[in-house]
Specification:
This protein has about 300 residues and is mainly α. It has one domain: A middle domain of Talin 1 (Up-down Bundle). Helices cover about 80% and strands about 5% of the residues. It is built from twelve helices and four strands, in the order ααααβαβαααααβαβα. A two-stranded antiparallel ribbon has the order 1-4. Helix 2 runs antiparallel to helix 6. About 0% of the residues have low confidence.
Length: about 300
């Protein structure tokens, strides 16, 4: 029985990863076929669809009244994006800072601090519907500003596939993400009980790593081609959307109760990782291999402490 839960969980993560890749690629291809400006594609569609796995899992968890999974997945993904995705990318190819990324990185940190303080002092241990609405509006504002400022120079999707084939991959991709999310959310609690750890631990680690796979794949592919800046922009954008769109949408449907451990360990650690990221970007002007190994080691330590 234990093996069945684990296999269903892992198969769900596979479907989410594969489906998200198809969904994002086909969305960009459809936009290109329909002559949508690349500015809009890069600033909105790519950011949204690389965060689709987190949104799908967290929103479904909120619907099923599993706040630990809903909130833990979003927070864990932010930590994973910095500690795993960016570190691996930097180890492969140094990440150089830019003015545009610096401003968005500050915004990411401010949103993280705001979420922590507001939920603690004003929502009394909850991500309330009011806070959810605020976060959702911030996500919309961020996407509008991003589309106006422009950040899509690196996108060169020139698919030669027919529109019908692209739409087919779009449908299959979306379906895979939904089915995968259902399998992941449905097996989180059984696996947590079998392992003897709280649901929030599984959400912050195993689920978060699984839903961050699209970002990891994109980061590795970009870094191997010497375009690690793409990975940097994608991670910062994904983190902002995780804390606004993903958390906000889940809280709008069903207020999310935050566990005591999350307040005093996971959220502070998330802010710490953001601070380390900003330190490397602003004061050292880049994240090199040494910094990448340091971030990776810090993330591994976090996962180890979470379980043991």
């Amino acid at each position: 029985m234990t093996l069945i839960f684990v296999l269903k969980f892992c198969f769900g993560l596979f479907l989410i990863s594969k489906g998200a890749s198809w969904f994002a690629d086909s969305s960009v291809a459809i936009a290109n076929k329909l002559k949508v400006p690349k500015l809009v594609i890069g600033a909105t569609l790519v950011s949204i669809f690389t965060t689709l796995p987190e949104f799908s899992v967290s929103f479904l968890a909120s619907v099923k009244n599993q706040p630990d999974t809903a909130f833990g997945n979003a927070v864990g993904s932010v930590i994973c994006n910095i500690g795993l995705v960016l570190s691996v990318s930097a180890i492969i190819s140094p990440i150089i800072n830019s003015t545009k990324i610096s401003s968005k990185s500050f915004l990411m940190l401010l949103i993280g601090i705001f979420l922590y303080l507001f939920s603690y002092f004003f929502s009394h241990g909850f991500i309330s519907s009011t806070l959810g609405a605020i976060l959702f509006l911030v996500a919309i504002f961020y996407l509008i500003i991003s589309s106006l400022s422009g950040n899509s120079d690196e996108l060169t999707d020139e698919s030669k596939d027919s529109l019908n084939k692209i739409i087919l991959f779009f449908i299959f991709g979306g379906t895979f993400v939904l089915i995968g999310s259902y399998l992941v959310v449905g097996n989180v609690i059984p696996i947590a009980k079998l392992m003897g750890v709280p649901e929030i631990i599984i959400a912050l680690t195993m689920v978060a790593i699984g839903t961050s796979l699209p970002e990891l794949v994109m980061a590795v592919a970009s870094s191997l081609k010497g375009h690690s800046g793409i990975a940097l922009g994608n991670v910062v954008g994904a983190n902002i959307l995780n804390l606004t769109w993903v958390v906000g949408s889940a809280a709008l449907y069903n207020p999310l109760k935050i566990e005591h451990k999350t307040y005093f360990f996971d959220l502070p650690f998330m802010i710490l990782m953001m601070g380390l990221f900003l330190f490397f970007i602003l004061f050292r002007k880049k994240i090199n291999a040494r910094s990448g190994f340091f971030l990776l080691a810090t993330y591994i330590l976090y996962v180890a402490v979470s379980f043991f």
